[in-house]
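Anyone opening a protein record will find just a pair of labelled lines. A complete record is shown below as an example:
=====
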Amino acid sequence: PELCRIVFWLAEHYPTSLRVKELFETIEAFRVIGQYIWEVSKHRRVDRVLDLGCGHGLMGILLAYRFPEMTVCCVDLDPRDSTQHAIEAWMTEGEPAQGHDKPLDNLVVVAGDVAEVELDERAVAVCIHACNEANLVVLRKCREAGAVFAVMPCCIPERIYGTECKHLPDQIRYAAMLGVMAGTFKADKVCWIDERITNRNLICMGPHQGEDEVRLTRTSRTSTAAMGGSGHGTHGIDGRAK
């Protein structure tokens, strides 16, 4: 229930910092990525999550709230005031995890270039709707460091991954280029969120660890109902719940 309180508090105190599309988009992507991080953490150590090119910062904030034992770092060239507004909302209406004095004591926000971020095999790099070469930079850094990645691309320039996709409808081209990205960087899973929220709705996660083919899944059309459910618990905001 605190997620509803947080959203309403933010809307009341900083109405221009909360956009409906960004809220729905982030919650939908968070459900997918948060579940994937939980799955990965069962068979490899994960102690750091980076929200790269974080923009409004909601993804990093949600992940920090769900995984209180992991350090979460939001990185952007020019961090927005809206990020601090959202943190204030969580600090005001959120609940501390067990063993913690306050919410989000594991979250840091830094101004920086994603190309200069240091990763290692214990890190997860998240990149939501970064444009042009930013996704490629993040994916290459993850491959070099052995880090886990979760990216939901926005703009994908022609031939950036060595494959040309011309004369195709926009959504088909986007899906094809995401497939090239997944193959190039050995993705483990490709998921999609509701296309009514955004037409750039595919999430590529990995790297792949086994012999099976890449898994394709989607979120439930009713998943935004999580806003009205329990937060730090049964609906997956808390890392101890699925």
In short: The first strand starts at residue 48 and ends at 52. The two ends are 16 Å apart (CA to CA). Residues 96 and 103 are 4 Å apart (CA to CA).
